[in-house]
Specification:
Elements (H helix, E strand, L loop, with lengths): L2 H61 L9 H19 L13 H8 L8 H8 L3 H8 L5 H9 L9
Length: 162
């Protein structure tokens, strides 16, 4: 292969890499926008559930019903239970939920050496669908120690290690 052909090939690959980087940036932004939209909708739904729950309590109080009386009380009690059971399910999709999903070895590699390595902990968590704490713990070698060991054996230096 001639030097000019090699140079043309390298330039072509550089252009393809730039195109991929632009595409990834667009996907990250789209993902963040969708996540924000879902969070706003979740907050609105949670507020509506709280209003419904309060309305049911008010109706029960106006009826003067307790566990033994009131012909409609069991139905209201069942409705209130259904409404209150919705809140944890909706909040589990919220950005501030304790855990979105369990982190895997593949996620650890992505946040340490992959496409999320240059992102801040919070941004990497949102990008990968994980929490800040999961990414932080992985990067500072509190979790996924076997992944860190394999990387160190391959002469990788952890930029987040203290």
């Amino acid at each position: 292969m001639k030097a000019s052909e090699l140079e043309a090939l390298v330039n072509q690959q550089a252009e393809q890499i730039d195109t991929l980087k632009t595409g990834m940036a667009w996907l990250r932004e789209a993902h963040a926008n969708l996540t924000d939209r879902i969070d706003r909708q979740t907050e609105g739904f949670t507020a509506k559930v709280e209003v419904m729950s309060a309305a049911i309590d008010k109706i029960i109080a106006q009826m003067g019903a307790d566990d033994e009386d009131g012909p409609f009380y069991p139905e209201f009690k069942a409705l209130k239970t259904v409404v209150e059971d919705m809140v944890p399910k909706v909040n589990s999709t919220n950005k501030s939920a304790p855990v979105k999903r369990n982190m895997t070895d593949a996620d650890a590699l992505r946040c340490l050496t992959g496409d999320a390595k240059d992102l801040a902990h919070k941004d990497a968590g949102e990008f990968l669908g994980l929490t800040y704490a999961q990414v932080y713990s992985c990067r500072l070698e509190f979790t996924f120690k076997h992944v860190h060991k394999d990387l160190r054996d391959a002469k990788w230096v952890n930029p987040w290690a203290k």
